[in-house]
Structure formats: structure tokens, C-alpha cells
Specification:
The chain is an alpha/beta fold. The chain contains 14 helices and eleven strands. It has a domain of about 260 residues: 3-Layer(aba) Sandwich (Aspartate Aminotransferase, domain 2).
């Protein structure tokens, strides 16, 4: 009989100790790559090692190399944390070890995903027939949504891309904001369209696509067309004018795909949904659950208002696959993976635990904390570069690139909080993203004070 209690018990103790220590843990890695190699490396093991000892050694070896992104004072990139229910469900997902590609391989995983999908569609206020794929993240969500778009616009032009490929196909033009996320470009590369198909659309000072510029581009664009809009610029949090974009694009026969990696969750909030007017008029959407829903990595979502296009782009049939005769949902029909982790369990648990009101509260609190951070820094002479509409704050110190980069490095090394640097409109900036369900006013005040201390230490 295998010893499950030993290694799992060790993992449980290590995990709960780590989570309990997050509020006071320095927010940043404390080991160099060389130190981590020394602690974890060595020659290939030749003999078995006790599993509990392996877990203890692994946990000890990585301890100082972890980036505590679950901390309420972690503001880097756009990382969320993980709620207790989501973590617990993710642990069970690993224990159950279900291959969630087919209903036949895991009826429970298929039904849970179907239920969670219906909840997501309702939360976001999208058409009830919207289909959902559980993918790794916004990269693959953008890929899948754009694959459905590619199918649909070529179908309308009389071309079957799944059968005939792209050689000889009518060229597709993709109209996307000049401040789009790079995952859009990368998805187009994966899809064989290449980045030269992109027509950059002028944006305003916050990174929002200009509807008038889109209208001009549409008037001179012929043939199959996809418009990529954005809800939540990765630097400023800015939201494209979705209603106008959808109206213009659909009048021209174009498909509208919305990259909304974190911003789509604002639709859950009664106070913030006004910023997303027209979101239900788009054709496909990409978002992450491992951001504002705060489930463990990896967990992305693609949603499509046209089930037939979604299915046509992703579906597969093979003699060795067992498709349910009663028509139960096979996840393989809605995402690009065959074998896949049952990501729906954690999403289901997070939504069940928080409910609509709890999710809205997390989103609204994060946005309020972003405003608090921006106001505190601005009151102390720091330049805030963006209109804080969601959870992103963009700041610059002394209108100086070197000083700004130095403050970012100093904050990361100091350890009270952690945020990343970026470049905005050709200038260095600090990007503060408030995405964690645990972040509160004390976290913001401690972090703002640390930023100002580091700024003073750099000589300004």
C-alpha cells in the first residue's frame, strides 16, 4: 500500500505554513539563480528517495526563490492570488487526476465545466448561447477566439480553412489598437495569419482605440475582416469604446474579438459595468480566471457567441475517441488541447464560494485600492500617468527614466511590496496592478510608504 499520508501531510504542513506567512513575508525572491541551482541541483538521482523527504527537500530548496504573488502586497504584472476554496479544489483536481478532454474520460469534470460555463456567461451578461472553453490563459483564449473568427470570416467568403488551409485563401485583415497586448500578435502568428495582417488603429492618450480611426480603416478595408478590441489595457487599464466598435465592425461584416484578460470581470460589478457598455455585442472574448477570480494557475477562458464557429475551429473526430452518444459536452470541442487538466473544478469552487456579490466586491475593492494607491503617491509629488479606471496605476518619478527604473529596483529589493516596471509612450514607468482578493487599505498604505521611502533613498 503506498504511503499517501507522509508526502501529502508534509505538503499540507508546508503549504499552510507558507499561506499563513504571506501577510508578513517579504514580497520578492531572496535567492540568486546560483543559490537555487546549488540547493536543488546535483546529478541525476540513481536510487529512490522517500517521497516525504523529497517533498521536504523540494519545499526547503525553493523557499527563497519563490515570488509571493499571493501576497496582498504583490502588485506585479496582473497576477491574482488564490482563494481558499479555489486552492482546495485545485488540490483535489490533482488528486483526482482527471483527463478532462472527453465526457467519457471524466463525466464529473465535464458536468462541472458545463455548470461553471453557464455561470460565467450569466456573470458577464453575455448571450445565453455563448460557448466556453477552459484554456491555459489569455494567450490561448485569444488564439481560440481568433481561430473561431478566422473560420467565420473565411466561411462567409466561401473558403473552408479547416479543410483547405490558408494557401490560396482570401487574405484576412485584422484591425487592432496600436496599444493591443502582444498575445494578439502571437496568436495571429500561431494561426498562420502573421503579424503583417494587422492594421494598427490609432489610440488616444490612455491607449483606447479611437472609434473614428476604426471607421476610417473599415471604410478602406475589403474582404474578410476581424476587429480586435481591448477591455483593460495592460498598462493603464483603459477600456476601448466597445459599443461603437461593435456597431462599426458589424456594419462592415467584421467579427469583433475582445481581449479582456482582466477587464471582463468588471462586468460583474454593478458600479463598473457601465464602462463595458456593448460588451455583449461582441463575437468572442478572452479572459483569465487566474486574475480577478483568483484561482490558481493556469486558468484562462475563451467565450464565443457563435457556437458553430467555435466548434468548427476546434472540433476533432477520431475512431479512437469516445464521443458521448447523448451529446454530453466534450471539452475537446472548445479548446485546442487533447489531454488537459480539469480546470473547471477550481473555477466552479471559486464562483460557488464567492457568488456574484463576492466577486463584485473583490473587483470593486481592488479598483478602490488602486485609486487609494494613486491618490497617496500623487499627494506626495509622484506623477500618475493614467486615468485610474480599473485596477492599474501607472506612475513615473521625476520625469526621469533612470530614476524611475532605480525606484522600481529598490522597491523590489526592499521587500514590502513588489511591482514591475514598464515602458509607456516611450518612457519608463512603474506599473501597479491591484488584483489580489486579500489586498486591503493597510496593504496599500504600507506599500505606498515603502515606495516613497525608496524614492527618497534614490535622491529625490
Amino acid at each position: 500500500m503506498p504511503d499517501w499520508k507522509g508526502p501529502l501531510g508534509e505538503a499540507f504542513e508546508r503549504a499552510t505554513t507558507y499561506l499563513a506567512g504571506l501577510p508578513e513575508r517579504p514580497v520578492g525572491p531572496r535567492a540568486t539563480a546560483a543559490e537555487l541551482h546549488h540547493a536543488l541541483g546535483g546529478g541525476l538521482p540513481q536510487q529512490p528517495t522517500d517521497p516525504q523527504e523529497v517533498i521536504a527537500q523540494l519545499a526547503q530548496g525553493v523557499e527563497d526563490g519563490l515570488l509571493p504573488s499571493g501576497s496582498g502586497r504583490f502588485f506585479g504584472f496582473v497576477f491574482g492570488g488564490a482563494t481558499p476554496a479555489a486552492v482546495a479544489a485545485d488540490w483535489l483536481t490533482t488528486v483526482w487526476d482527471q483527463n478532462a478532454g472527453l465526457y467519457a474520460a471524466s463525466p464529473a469534470a465535464a458536468v462541472v465545466e458545463e455548470v461553471a460555463a453557464s455561470w460565467l456567461v450569466e456573470l458577464f451578461g453575455l448571450p445565453s448561447s455563448t460557448t466556453v472553453g477552459f484554456v491555459t490563459g489569455a494567450q490561448m483564449a485569444n488564439f481560440t477566439g481568433l481561430a473561431a473568427a478566422r473560420h467565420d470570416v473565411l466561411r462567409k467568403a466561401g473558403w473552408d480553412v479547416e479543410r483547405d488551409g490558408l494557401i490560396g485563401a482570401p487574405p484576412i485583415r485584422v484591425l487592432a489598437g496600436a496599444e493591443r497586448h502582444d498575445t494578439v500578435d502571437r496568436a495571429l502568428r500561431f494561426l498562420g495569419l502573421g503579424t503583417s495582417c494587422i492594421v494598427p488603429i490609432e489610440v488616444d492618450g490612455q491607449g483606447r482605440m479611437r472609434a473614428d480611426a476604426l471607421a476610417d480603416a473599415l471604410s478602406t478595408t475589403a474582404g474578410p475582416t476581424i476587429v480586435c478590441a481591448q477591455v483593460g489595457n495592460v498598462n493603464t487599464g483603459a477600456i476601448d469604446p466597445i459599443a461603437e466598435i461593435c456597431e462599426l465592425a458589424h456594419a462592415a461584416g467584421a467579427w469583433v474579438h475582445v481581449d479582456a484578460a482582466f477587464g471582463l470581470w468588471a462586468a460583474v460589478s454593478p458600479a463598473l459595468r457601465q464602462h463595458l457598455t456593448g460588451i455583449d455585442q461582441a463575437d468572442s472574448w478572452a479572459t483569465d480566471a487566474h486574475k480577478w477570480l483568483n484561482v490558481p494557475y493556469d486558468s484562462g477562458l475563451v467565450l464565443c457567441a457563435h457556437p458553430e464557429a467555435h466548434h468548427a475551429a476546434m472540433a476533432v473526430r477520431a475512431s479512437y475517441l469516445i464521443h458521448d452518444e447523448q451529446g454530453e459536452r466534450d471539452a475537446i470541442e472548445f479548446n485546442p488541447e487533447f489531454s488537459r487538466r480539469a480546470r473547471g473544478f477550481a473555477v466552479y469552487a471559486a464562483i460557488r464560494a464567492l457568488g456574484r456579490e463576492g466577486i463584485a466586491e473583490v473587483v470593486e475593492r481592488c479598483c478602490a485600492m488602486a485609486h487609494r494607491f494613486a491618490d497617496t503617491l500623487a499627494a506626495n509629488g509622484v506623477a500618475v500617468l493614467n486615468d485610474v479606471v480599473l485596477n492599474q496605476v501607472l506612475v513615473r518619478f521625476g520625469d526621469d527614466d533612470e530614476l524611475t527604473r532605480a525606484v522600481v529596483r529598490a522597491v523590489q529589493q526592499e521587500g514590502t511590496c513588489w511591482m514591475s516596471g514598464t515602458t509607456w509612450q516611450g518612457k519608463a514607468a512603474m506599473r501597479i496592478s491591484v488584483s489580489n482578493w486579500m489586498t486591503d487599505e493597510e496593504d496599500i498604505d504600507r506599500s505606498a510608504a515603502a515606495v516613497l521611502r525608496c524614492l527618497a533613498g534614490e535622491g529625490l
